[in-house]
Amino acid sequence: TITPRLIFISYRLRSACRLQRIQGHVMSTKAGSEVLFEKVGNAGVITLNRPKALNALNLTMIRHIYPQLKKWDKDSETDLVIIKGAGDKGFCAGGDIRAITEAGKAGDSLTQDLFREEYILNNTIGTYQKPYVALIDGITMGGGVGLSIHGRFRVATEKTLFAMPETGIGKRQPVFLSPCGFIICLTRQIVSLEKDLVDLKSPSNSDVAQLLDSYQEQSCLDAEKPFVLQEQTEAIDRLFSAGSVEEIMENLKKDGSAFALKQTETLAKMSPTSLKLTFRQIQEGARMSLQAVLVMEYRLSQACMRGNDFYEGVRAVLIDKDQSPKWKPSTLSGVSEQAIEECFSSLGERDLKL
């Protein structure tokens, strides 16, 4: 006979099993299954190990990478650091957007913790004293960009897809993308390059640069082809040199070229609030240090978590996939200067501290 007591015991057992599964996942995660570390010779090698998720970055991974970098920085037997992604599709496809979305809706502290600790990690990479080499073979977006461009050396391949698509999901476009160059290496040479890097003995930055340059000289794929935007460079400079997003849109409409019309169509799909935030970020960020930019970025990340457009963008693009977000406000004119100013305001004690 099934009694209330048996039902209760069955429920408790099922709950216990679920808890064990969750704990097992957490324990395996804490053991570093999502990010791997190894010493190869005198090189510390980091492998982002979520290939099915295109190595998307989450808080657990950040909390493993940060202390390991600190440890290697102080270790006299570690001469350089290499970071790469598992699998053959991507280096890192950005942050775990779904987890951030769920946390934001629930008021969970993940929305503060993840961005704060990610930006602290970015700053650590940007100020790292030893050579830091990012092998960005494949898709590299959002958080993956932060893990790579701040390091001294960035190695791209013919498979690298480099993107920051934030405004399409109602999030501001990060502007810590200081002008940076990439060493080009063919995918088939990556394994050989990594071996040569770890074989270097007490390398200086110039030693690493010399090795990377030697690989770039071998990578002549499409070298005879012009820059893909070469024909549009003059138009980009002319049309996007404006004092506001509204002026840019007006320039594009007046120009009337196929290129301008395509940009108008693309920008019209984006969150008006995100466009205005990004425009101001780019203007202010150009005059800031990395540390000041990261403080600004953190303030804006929290503003996006408080607003509507991030959640609506994720719904439209990643969840329902109807590609029809309902932005609030829905027009550039509806986004007040006061609203933008508030997003840049200090968070007081909750500001990012580096």
Automatic annotation (TrEMBL):
Question: To which protein family does this belong?
Answer: Belongs to the enoyl-CoA hydratase/isomerase family.
Checking Gene3D superfamilies in the record gives: 2-enoyl-CoA Hydratase, Chain A, domain 1
**Stated role:** Hydrolyzes 3-hydroxyisobutyryl-CoA (HIBYL-CoA), a saline catabolite. Has high activity toward isobutyryl-CoA. Could be an isobutyryl-CoA dehydrogenase that functions in valine catabolism. Also hydrolyzes 3-hydroxypropanoyl-CoA.
Organism, per UniProt? Cyprinus carpio
**Chain ranges passing through the membrane:** none
Q: What is a single molecular function from GO for this protein?
A: 3-hydroxyisobutyryl-CoA hydrolase activity
Top-level taxon of origin: Eukaryota
Q: What are the residue boundaries of the Enoyl-CoA hydratase/isomerase domain, all occurrences included?
A: 44-170, 187-344
Keyword list (alphabetical) reads:
Branched-chain amino acid catabolism, Hydrolase, Mitochondrion
Pathway of this protein? Answer: Amino-acid degradation; L-valine degradation
**Enzyme Commission code:** 3.1.2.4
The UniProt entry, under InterPro entries, shows: ClpP/crotonase-like_dom_sf (IPR029045), ECH_dom (IPR045004), HIBYL-CoA-H (IPR032259)
Key word Hydrolase present = yes
Q: What is its main location?
A: mitochondrion
The protein's annotated catalytic reaction(s) are: 3-hydroxy-2-methylpropanoyl-CoA + H2O = 3-hydroxy-2-methylpropanoate + CoA + H(+)
Places the protein is found: Mitochondrion
Q: What is this protein called?
A: 3-hydroxyisobutyryl-CoA hydrolase
A Gene Ontology biological process in which this protein takes part is: L-valine catabolic process
Keyword Hydrolase (UniProt): yes
- Which SUPFAM superfamilies does its entry note? ClpP/crotonase
Q: Tell me which GO cellular component terms the UniProt record holds.
A: mitochondrion
